[in-house]
Design a protein that fits this description.
4 helices; globular; binds flavin mononucleotide; alpha+beta; 29% strand; five-stranded mixed sheet
Length: 135
């Protein structure tokens, strides 16, 4: 079953080296597992969506959760997916260099949400708009 996972986490330290390192590894591993998605990084937090077969997402997420480059990993949603949004990206990245203040504020507002808020789909659609339009 195709699934979509969305989580958020916080980081203390960020640099282009740290981010490159995460993305290079993510893109290599995700390609092998046919995992697609997007990673938002900025304002002290990550939000990431992972699309793929349930057991592949689980396997990668088990490693991500233990990664010391972030803390307080909270799942915002983990639901069935009919069609991938990020089929062309083994891991797209949205950082504060490509995102406008307007959209950054929107993402920041979402960053405190939890699974109870049912905003997974809305949030992932917003990320797709940002990736497509570099807004
Ligand atoms: C915010 C964040 C996002 C990550 N995303 C991915 C990912 O999408 N895929 C992945 O394989 N590793 C990702 N990683 C790296 C994993 O935590 C871990 O270092 C990596 O999967 C280890 O791969 P290896 O077992 O091949 O050495 C991420 C790490 C962080 C901090």
């Amino acid at each position: 079953m195709l699934k979509n996972l969305l989580y958020r986490s916080v980081y203390d330290e960020m640099s282009s080296d740290i981010l490159d390192n995460i993305l290079n590894k993510a893109r290599k591993n995700n390609k092998e597992k046919n995992i697609t998605g997007v990673l938002f990084v900025g304002s002290g937090f990550f939000m990431q969506t992972l699309e793929g077969e349930e057991e592949d997402i689980q396997e990668i997420f088990d490693k991500i959760k233990l990664d010391i480059r972030h803390n307080n990993v909270v799942i915002i949603g983990f639901s069935d997916l009919k069609k991938r949004r990020f089929e062309n990206w083994s891991m797209a990245c949205i950082n504060t260099e490509i995102i406008s203040d307007f959209y950054l504020k929107k993402v920041e507002k979402f960053s405190s949400y939890t699974e109870d808020d049912n905003i997974e789909g809305e949030m992932c659609d917003l990320f797709l708009d940002i990736v497509n339009n570099k807004m």
